[in-house]
Design brief:
nine-stranded mixed sheet, AMP-dep_synth/lig_dom, Beta-alanine-activating enzyme isoform X1, PQQ_rpt_dom, lipid metabolism, seven-stranded antiparallel sheet, alpha+beta, 1109 residues
């Protein structure tokens, strides 16, 4: 029987080859690869199909999303969806969320399968919380999948699948690039294919979206199956072949790779995506370890191997690679092929051509060996070849007439070789699609010429230059611009900067990264004073190209860096520019390009910039960029740039040169240290749990009321602080802001004294939010200086490596620093008030100047630092824990480690707590230890061992120390180490206790639990109240009061589902709540009526609490 579906093809092969290896996954870490047989693939698929049919509503299971990374179960997951029957929609976890959300909405997606590894469920919900929420969740344990039922928010309501299709029927105008069949011709059928027929569709992809928002392309089985049958025959695939899955799921050649393999009894090799950007490792994995025999790839993927690897491994005489099929971009010239192949190589080359709108390939041409070997045809182009099974290819002139010679546009179709684009529901058999590509017909062969409009193909994806231009022109730093695809090789952007643009090209690149996909980023940005025009008033692109070419000529005449110092400096500039890093970002010698935000496209740009800088071609440069460190790259360039004498000088002084970037920091250290004491300032700092650090050094201020008149003390747990401010109203701001009265910034000359709702209801509204670039798990530090106006600043870090200082009044960013890795540690202010201290995943403790973020000192521990530092108000020592199992006492003034203490095993995740009387430092570890330490010398005074780790930070009163445990208990110990009591909850405790010290006679402890409750305890473990939130409580509560609102104290706390709760601290009654569009692990900090907290949707939020009328 003729197979009409993709899963039919696989089931037939599995019946014959049931015990043979079907899929191999190699994570390329040195671990043993994982293999599964055809029988296991089919059984896994059958189980998934059954589960989906049971769990999902029959009216909404015609299409399923698949949100995953490449892995061993990929084939079973796809087959399981196809057998429902349903179509699969790959959703790339690394794609911009707004583009993926648009695609999912176009598909009317109601269900999505999410891989359970890598925290992908959290990532999905965080990324798409603006558009949807999860209506139901089912864990498919054996499948390593989670099934989510999606509920789109009101503003994105889709209706049912049938409603969407009904709406689409009005759009039978079809796509603008569609050529319908002529019903007047008797030889042409007008029979329609209907996408709503169950089992019609196999998968749904989307166009690149560079012509605007992406359009979905729904592909029927009958469209793609002929591709599979014909290509496996042309490639002569046998059960002995190993095929490499080179394409991502969102690129339709992946369908060919998957089903040509599994329909032939061959084996499919899958590896992590990041390895595809590491040429040496990729070549070794493919051809040394797994002996790949058939590979389909873009020319760009092959080029990144470099000539040396191509000759020695990929296309050597002894290579395992039997077939190399290239598509997605213009085929390389014969001269390039000859350069790639080693003598004696027998690999067979194929040229593939096609478009996503008629998935996947339309034509194929096998390059004869005698053509490649011939030296008389060095520059001949390669034909597109003949149409594949069921495919019709036509070349038409501008009038739409078919031609047999000369230039014309190419159209693709066939009776059943058609897809549904956008809202198309039914289509006539035989529909032809215009590709937008121009070809030339010569002697019955079709040769690709390129695109003669603004649409180009770049890195295998379609790109609209007009859209790039519109995106650039929308930036505030750009007055005008023009874009060209120079010699179909480089995307050049010409920019006329706006007057307010101070640092043109860098600022523009930083902005474009936010709005353009990787394949749309320019290779080169050329700043020009104005755009030249033709007589017709159009931009004169020829003149602009001349400007670019003159610049390139000038670079060639430049002799390159003069010595190692200049090379190091120039390379730093290029590295930061290509990776869109700030100019003051610290680049360590061991920094790796791929793990610093680089990718294959950026590596090409860096390679070209380096060769332009030195004025010559550098062998194996791409290899070093992708596989080496910054230091390796420097040495590689120096090796080919300097004379032997220069090399000796470089080697002798290399260590000094490596420290050059840090030497300027050392100068700053000496300067600051010299004036450390005389620059001390009055301040109040506020951090999570209501921890307050106050300092007054009697600094007079003529223009404002004294903020504080206290000596160095450290009070904890109560933020009812009387304060007055005489500040100017902030200037207008472009941050996300809501107008509200501001207790910190009232109108000039007036004290803020407005009465609010007293004991009545409360409400929260957003004043501003600030984008940090990635998840914000750290909690804010609020620093209010006693000198100067508008003195309140929020300090907070995020997973984007950024540390931000944000003006509390306006939400404007005062400064931003990019540290070496992600930041989960919350910042602390030093005794003098001039510096903030924050830990980082790169194992460093950073001491940054509070005023401008400049590095004063960095101290290296042995592992990530997630702990929040504690400052001794007497000595000024900073205590901080590290995942290297140590706690450190740091003297910021002298830049020395006074002592370090190994904490008995287990990382120190939580924050140390310094108790004043008795003077003891409390430290908790993930090794289940609670330690009391002498803060002056690091000696252990006593310790308590538990069965479960401590994520919670210890908190103290004069009588006892309190801590939460993963075992679900809150423990209370005396200061001599005796356990006084414990209180049990019904879930692990990650939240740190918050102590209400407003009344020494009636102290309360508030703590959250993963059982969704917030608990309030009186002395002696008596439960005063508990409040049920809507999710786990990870954060530390904050107890506060504000006499503008009422005399009773309140509790602010967040739950992980993004809810902020304001509770009455006496009764636990809910006063008000607020929902954030993402998960929340950050703890809130409150000052007066202003509340600050971070969210995993990348933003820091500032809210205002007020009374309702």
């Amino acid at each position: 029987m003729e197979e009409t579906s993709l899963h039919d093809l696989v089931q037939r092969a599995a019946h014959i080859h049931s015990d043979k290896i079907a899929v191999c996954f190699d994570d390329c870490s040195g671990a043993t690869p994982v293999y599964i047989s055809y029988n296991e693939v089919i059984n896994g698929a059958r189980e998934l199909t059954s589960l989906l049919n049971i769990q999902c509503d029959i009216n909404n299971r015609s299409v399923f999303g698949l949100y995953c990374q490449p892995g061993i179960n990929l084939a079973s997951w796809i087959l399981g969806i196809l057998q429902v029957p349903a179509a699969y929609v790959p959703v790339d976890p690394e794609a911009p969320p707004h583009l993926s959300a648009h695609v999912m909405m176009q598909c009317c997606l109601r269900y999505i399968l999410i891989q359970r590894d890598f925290d992908l469920s959290k990532k999905f919900l965080n990324s798409f919380s603006t558009w949807l929420h999860c209506d139901a969740e089912v864990v498919l344990q054996n499948q390593n999948l989670t099934l989510l039922k999606l509920q789109w928010r009101e503003t994105h309501n889709l209706g049912t699948a049938n409603e969407l299709q009904d709406r689409a029927t009005e759009g039978q105008q079809q796509d603008t690039q569609t050529s319908k069949v002529d019903p007047s011709e008797p030889s042409v059928s007008v029979e329609q294919i209907d996408s709503r027929v169950p089992g019609c569709l196999a998968y749904v992809l989307h166009t690149s979206g560079t012509t605007g928002l992406p359009k979905i392309v729904r592909v029927p089985h009958r469209c793609i199956v002929p591709n599979i049958l014909h290509l496996r025959a042309m490639f002569q695939i046998t059960p002995e072949d190993v095929l490499f899955m080179a394409s991502p799921l969102t690129f339709d050649p992946s369908v060919v790779e998957l089903f040509v393999t599994l329909s032939s009894g061959a084996s499919l090799l899958i590896i992590p995506s990041v390895v595809k950007m590491m040429p040496t490792k990729l070549a070794a994995v493919l051809f040394n370890h797994h002996r790949v025999s058939v590979m389909q790839a873009t020319p760009t993927l092959v080029r990144q191997f470099g000539t040396s690897l191509l000759n020695s491994t990929v296309l050597s005489a002894s290579t395992s690679l039997r077939i190399l099929a290239l598509g997605g971009e213009a085929f390389p010239t014969l001269a390039v092929l000859r350069n790639w192949r080693a003598k004696g190589n027998k690999t067979q080359f194929f040229n593939l051509y096609g478009i996503t709108e008629v998935s996947s390939w339309a034509t194929c041409y096998m390059i004869p060996d005698d053509i490649i070997d011939s030296t008389s045809r060095s520059e001949d182009s390669i034909p597109l070849g003949t149409p594949l099974l069921g495919t019709t290819v036509e070349v038409r002139d501008l009038n739409g007439s078919l031609i047999k010679q000369g230039e014309g546009k190419i159209f693709i179709g066939g009776r059943e070789r058609l897809c549904f684009i956008g809202n198309e529901v039914t289509m006539p058999y035989g529909t032809m699609r215009e590709t937008g590509d121009w070809v030339v017909l010569k002697e019955s062969n079709v040769y690709y010429m390129g695109r003669k409009d603004s649409h180009i193909k770049r890195h295998g994806k379609r790109l609209n230059l007009e859209t790039v231009q519109q995106t650039v022109e929308s930036l505030s730093t750009v007055e005008a611009c023009a874009v060209t695809y120079y010699k179909e090789h480089k995307l050049i952007l010409f920019v006329v900067a706006a007057s307010q643009c101070a640092d043109g090209d860098k600022d523009i690149f930083l902005e474009l990264v936010k709005f353009l996909p990787a394949h749309a980023m320019p290779d080169k940005l050329v700043m020009v004073e104005s755009l030249p025009f033709t007589a017709h008033g159009k931009v004169n692109m020829k003149e602009l190209v001349k400007v670019y070419e003159k610049q390139m000529e000038a670079l060639k005449l430049h002799s390159g860096p003069q010595g190692k110092e200049e090379l190091w400096a120039c390379l730093l500039v290029l590295w930061k520019a290509v990776l869109s890093l700030p100019a003051d970002a610290m680049i360590l010698p061991e920094s790796a390009f791929l793990f610093s935000g680089g990718d294959s496209l950026k590596s090409l740009r860096l390679s070209e910039e380096i060769e332009a800088m030195v004025g010559r071609t550098l062998p194996e440069l791409m290899e070093v960029i992708l596989n080496g460190s910054f230091l390796d790259l420097y040495n590689h360039i120096a090796n080919f740039t300097f004379s032997s004498n220069d090399k000796e000088t470089t080697e002798v002084n290399l260590k000094q040169e490596l420290n050059k970037e840090f030497s300027s920091v050392e100068v700053q250290k000496r300067t600051v240290s010299h004036s450390y004491k005389e620059k001390a300032v009055s301040f109040t700092s506020m951090c999570r749990g209501g921890l307050v650090f106050k300092s007054d050094v009697d600094v007079p201020n003529k223009n404002s009321t004294a903020l504080l008149s206290l000596k160095h003390v450290e009070t904890r747990g109560h933020s009812d602080i009387t304060h007055q401010h005489v500040n100017k109203a902030p200037a207008s701001s472009t941050v996300h802001q809501v107008e509200s009265a501001d207790p910190l910034c009232p109108a000039e000359g007036h004290l803020f004294q407005k009465d609010l709702a007293g004991e009545g209801g409360l409400m929260l509204k957003m004043r501003w939010k600030s984008d940090t670039g990635k998840c914000v798990d750290a909690s804010p530090l609020l620093l209010i200086s006693g000198a100067g106006e508008a003195s309140a600043t929020v300090y907070i870090g995020s997973h984007s490596h950024r540390m931000q200082a944000i003006d509390l009044c306006s939400g404007m960013i005062k400064w931003e620093r990019v540290l070496g890795d992600r930041i989960e540690s919350s910042a602390t202010v030093t005794k003098c008030g001039n510096f903030i201290v924050v830990g980082c995943y790169d194992s460093l403790v950073y001491v940054l100047r509070a005023s401008d973020g400049k590095t004063y000192w960095t101290f290296s521990t042995g592992n990530s630092v997630k702990s929040c530092a504690t400052v001794d108000p007497e000595s000024g020592l900073v205590f901080i824990g590290s995942h290297d199992h140590h706690t450190y006492a740091l003297d910021v003034e002298t830049k020395q480690c006074v002592w370090k203490r190994h904490c008995g095993g287990g990382a120190v995740f939580s924050s140390p707590f310094l108790n004043s009387s008795p003077r003891q430092l409390y430290i908790a570890t993930l090794g289940s230890q609670l330690l009391a330490i002498n803060p002056d010398n690091g000696d252990i005074l006593w310790k308590h061992s538990s069965d479960k780790p401590f994520f919670s930070s210890p908190q103290c009163t004069q009588r006892a120390v309190f801590i939460g445990s993963v075992d679900g208990n809150v423990y209370c110990f005396s200061h001599t180490g005796k356990k006084l009591w414990q209180f049990s909850t019904n879930g692990p405790i990650f939240s740190s206790p918050c102590i209400d010290n407003s009344s020494l006679a009636d102290q309360k402890l508030v703590c959250g639990s993963h059982d969704n409750y917030v608990y309030c305890l009186k002395a002696g473990s008596e439960l005063l109240w508990k409040f049920k939130t809507s999710a786990k409580v990870y954060s530390t509560p904050f107890i506060f009061s504000d006499h503008h609102i009422g005399s009773r104290s309140l509790v602010a706390v967040t739950s992980t589902d993004g809810k902020l709760w304001i509770l009455d601290s006496e009764s636990g009654v809910l006063k008000t709540s607020y929902s954030f569009p993402g998960e929340t692990f950050s703890s809130p900090v409150v000052w007066g009526r202003t509340l600050i907290v971070g969210c995993r949707n990348n933003f820091v939020y500032c809210l205002e609490l007020s009374g309702t009328d």
